[in-house]
Amino acid sequence: MSGALLQISDVSCYYGAMRAVEGVSIDVAEGEIVAVIGANGSGKSTVMKSVAGLVRPRSGGIKFDGEEITGTPANKIIYRGISYVPEGRRLFANLSVRENLELGAFREKDRRVIDGRIEQVFALFPILKERANQTAQTMSGGEQQMCAIARGLMSGPKLLMLDELSLGLMPSLVEKVLQSVVEINKKGVTILLVEQMVQEALEIASRGYVIQVGRVVRQGTSEELLASDEVRKAYMGM
Questions:
Q1: Domain that includes residue 221, residue range
Q2: Is 16 a domain residue?
Q3: Which of 13, 72, 139, 191 to pair with 133, CA 20 to 30 A apart?
Q4: % of the chain beyond a pLDDT of 90
Q5: E-strand spans in the chain?
Q6: Which CATH number do you get for residue 50?
Q7: What pTM was computed for the model?
Q8: Strand 207-212 to 190-195 pairing
Q9: 121 part of a folded domain
Q10: Tens digits of per-residue pLDDT, 42-64?
């Protein structure tokens, strides 16, 4: 896609001798929500980690905002305007909600900006304001997921990458968390979403990519993928 904010071009990644993804190409335009769907172990998370600088592609390239970022270390990727919320939340369990949020803004030196972002994420997730001084480990799974997303927003990203948000959450909470993703997108943040809950992810995304055994096997608008018999049978039990 010409002019895409994120361009993943023919990327292949390995863990040792084991191929995780092969020849994956994904484009995300500014302002979009794009879903990457597929079964557990299909390579979805590896694609995200390659963008986040946690996995170095063996071949192919990644561009962000027109600049090459392939192989850029993870500690420098965040300065490009990319924030990655990993699978499993990875909060600092013994730190308070506020402390976790402030760590998400480590690259920002202006106290007023940090405080402003905290107020913004509290407005998005009011429960976090109530839990501000609670340690992360004392919160429910849904509250922890909200805190992880909020921490990801604290760096002021152009692109927010969300890895398996629904993992370990009750269905009612999944809907609530995904709705928060829509609200974040409305505020101008581009979203790349990796998710096993296919229908729920496609319902909030504009486009999607289906990954099987490390390869993109299908792509299209969310409407096209939701109407696909192949997708419905393979991932939605229909």
A1: 1-78+189-194+206-238
A2: yes
A3: 191
A4: 56
A5: 6-15, 18-28, 33-37, 59-64, 67-68, 82-85, 159-163, 190-195, 207-212, 215-221
A6: 3.40.50.300
A7: 0.90
A8: unpaired
A9: no
A10: 899 999 999 999 999 999 999 99
Q: Give 230's pLDDT tier (boundaries 50, 70, 90).
A: confident
Both tokens of 207, joined, read 């486009």
Residue 39 near residue 196, CB atoms below 8 Å: yes
Using CA atoms, how far apart are residues 41 and 8, in angstroms rounded to an integer? 19
Rounded distance between C-alpha atoms, residue 91 and residue 86, angstroms: 10
DSSP states of 181-208 as a string?
HHHHHHTT-EEEEEES-HHHHHHH-SEE
Q: What is the pLDDT of residues 151-190, one digit of tens each?
A: 999 999 999 999 988 877 777 788 888 888 999 999 999 9
- Cα→Cα distances 29→74, 89, 131, 238, Å: 22, 26, 35, 31
What is the reported pLDDT for 107?
A: 80
CB 163 within 8 A of CB 48: yes
pLDDT at 89: 67
Quick check: is 86 in a domain? no
